[in-house]
Structure formats: C-alpha cells, structure tokens
Amino acid sequence: MKKNLLLCTTLLSCSPLVIASSLDDIKISGFIGVTAAKSDAEQKYFDLIGDKITYDETNIGINLSKHVTNKLSIQAQLFGHDINDGVIFDWFFASYDLTPTAKIKLGKLKYGGSYYSEVVDVGFAYNWVRLPTEIYGHNEADAILSIESFKGAAMQNTFYLDEDEELEFGVELFTGVSEAVESDEAALEDILGAKFSLGNDTYYFSTTYTAYKIEEEDDYDEETSAESGREELKLGDRDATLWATVAKAEWENLYLTAEYVIAEVDDVSELDTTAWYASAGYSMGKLTPHITYASFDQDSGRAQDSFSLGVKYNFDSSIIVKAQYDKVHPKSTKDTGEVFFEDSPKDDNVNIFSISLNYIF
Amino acid sequence: MIKSKLIASTLLMLFYTHMALAETVVIVNPANNISSIKNSELKKIFKGKTKAFANGSPADPIDLSEGSATRNVFYQKTMKKSPEKMKAYWAKSVFSGAAMPPHDGGDAEGVKTWVSKNAAAIGYIDSADVDGTIKVISNN
After folding, report:
1. Above 60 in pLDDT, residue B13?
2. Closest in B84, B88, B100 to A65, CB measured
3. What are the Cα distances from residue A246, in Å, to A3, A135, B52?
C-alpha cells in the first residue's frame, strides 16, 4: 500500500498541471487511523469483526490542495485501507468561488447528505471509533447511505440571516453519477439532490433530499442470491430517494447529535428503510466520554439496534486515542436476512470492543 | 519586612500590568485600506468560509504555529473554541474538501514577514510584537 501511495503521490506531483505551477504552493495533509476490534460472536460483523482481533479498519489518507488563483482551487484525496485494494482517489475536484460565499465544485465529490458522510474514513473528525453503523454502514453496499461519492457538480451558497452574521443558511444543489456499488452490481445514475442547512456556533440543522436511479446489472440477482443463500429481490432499473436529516447542538462542554435517514425504492416497499441515532457527549479537558443509541429498520424485516459507550482522549493536538464498547442487538432472523452480520449470531446481543489511534498531519 | 512586601507588590503589579498590556491584535498589510474588522468577519475568514474582506478585496489568513499561547487566546476569544475543537473542525473541513486552513506562519516574526509581503494577508500577533512593517486593525 505504501508503494502504491508513494507512486500515486509521485505521479500526481509529476502531472503537467502541477509542474506548471509552483510545487511550494501545494498543501499536503493526511490522516492515519489504526483500529483494533473484537466481538464475542463467531459471526462476523461487516465481514470484518469477529471473535479474533482484527485491524482491518486501519486506513490512511493523503490530501493535496492548491490555490491556482484566489478563486480557483484544486484538491484531491488519496485513500487506502487494505494492501490488496491499493490506493484510490477518494475524491478530487476543482472549486471556483463565484462570490465570497458561493462556489461551484466539479469532479469526484463526496456525498454530503449526512453530517459525517464526507469524512467517514477520517477518525480524527469524530468521537466514535466507527460512526454509527446503522446509518453509515461500513461501505456503500451496506449503508442506508447508498451514495458514497459521485462524479458531477455541486453548487453551494451561504446566506447570513442576522446583522451579526452568526446565523448561517446554506443551500447546496448537486448532481452526478455514482460509481458502481461494490462488485459492480449496480450503478446509481441521475443523482439530483438539494441540501438546506441552518446553524450558528451552537446549533446546526440540515436536511438533504436526493433522488437517483438504480441501474442494476443483469446478473445481480443470481450472484447475490448465491452469496447470501437467500432469495434476493431483483430490482431492475428503479427510481430511489434518500432523505437525510441532521440536528446538532454544541455548548461549551456538552454536545447532542441526532441523524435520521429514510431510503425508499419505487414500488419495492420491502426496501423502505429508516435508520437513526442519537448521541450525547461531554468534554472534560482532554477526555470526552459519549453515549449513543442507534436503530435500523427495513420493511423486509431486516432490523437491528445498538447501544454504544465510548471515550475519546486528545493525546496532543494531532493524536487522539479512542475506545468504544458496542452492544448490538440484531432483531432479524436468517429468513429475513441479517442487517450487518454474515449469519445470525447465537446470542441475542453481540458485544464489540474497539480501540483506535488517529493521527493527522 | 515592609521593604520585601513592597518589592513583592511591585513585581505583582508589573506582572499584571504586563498581562493587561499583552493582548492579541489583528494585523494586515500596511497597503490594506481597512481599519477595523467585525468579529463575525474575522471568524468567517479564519474558518475558511470566505476568502474576501467585507469590502470584497481578497483575504488570505495566516496562523501562528500550533501550541502558541497567542494562537490559543485568539481562537478562544474569536471563535470560543479550544485548540482541540479547532483541530477537529479542520479535520472535518480539510478532509472533506470544504475549506483549507490558514497558512502556518510559525512565530510572530514569520507572520509579520508574510503579512508585510502579501497585500491580502490578515494575521494576529501579540501586541508586544507590533512594529512598523504591519498595520494593526481594531477587532470590533
């Protein structure tokens, strides 16, 4: 992975676009997350976490950015998490400031509907070891947030609603095509969305509505049925919608966060899904303990909820250490299909223990 | 006894006088014609939410290095955020591509040198470090 990363960085640095401008002006930053996790069930969670310690959630990202002019900037992020998967461009785009508060972005963009969906892999950006899986899943195939990134365009504008310019109202319109979901089973096309946000230093609220079209590969049905051992729904080409809402309040030491997501596929009511979580935390100097309840419920019968207790410790300004305990309660059976387990766990509840170290530079 | 108390009182007074005088000031290039800046505008510039002053001219912010006491005072006073919270804010902003952080100027000399050479620059330093190469603007 290191070789690939170096190769990609070198190639990017050697591109004519970059050579044409001063290398000194390129800002390089990055993140590294090392995560260890173990559960008390043989059946793996997300095909990753079982009864043996795994480090498979460990990842690295390198971010490159450059102001080409005062209004135009170019940014890219390389990301890798497994030596076999190599390094990918997580996202890359050119951003142009239309006004001091409005900009347009073109390229491969991260989906920004949920509060953390743009930084799912950046452990330094949140207090959990892993984001609530009921909403964020572990990759785009698992998650209710079926769109991880898309190639297209986004236009953002911010309006200040009061004289002191403390209260911000943001509007973002985006459109594009998503890369195929895992294993090339389906592509998400004609993505069209709108995000509205309102917030100040203490409160934040946003709601994002996204419509898209699922273009399914012909062999999806057979392949997935064979893999899961149960009959999968054949979707064909369908319209789908995703509606994500975020509410967050942050006082000096205390914060409360909640997210609610509804996903629907036209004429396939079995796939109508709701997922949500509510979380609270309290900062005590370098230590931030937090608590979370999350739920996933699909009309097909797939359902689970979980309860998490965690703590984040700011080792220094660039290093954080996190520990988390999750009690996951899968409500569905093998007949309806597990939500995130490969098979039905023997016990009603599965306990997962995780620790992580996150570093940014 | 009285003499030692007097010395102690004088030292204490000098210490508190220094604390009172030592404050963070916002600086721009001498060629910049703005004379004051609202706190909300300062917040927007240093959080990467705008790249322009209220009058429309470009704004290019520069920070003192991490760990600097003056930097911590500036962010606490302007944003009401601890260094840890600002770091988490930038982690989310940078790695989502939403915004880029201010330049890192190092120490006060580095910030002043950069501001004095860049017409769009805006920074902050301790008032004790002010000299004629930069212009102090009031922070309302």
Report:
1. no
2. B100
3. 39, 12, 29
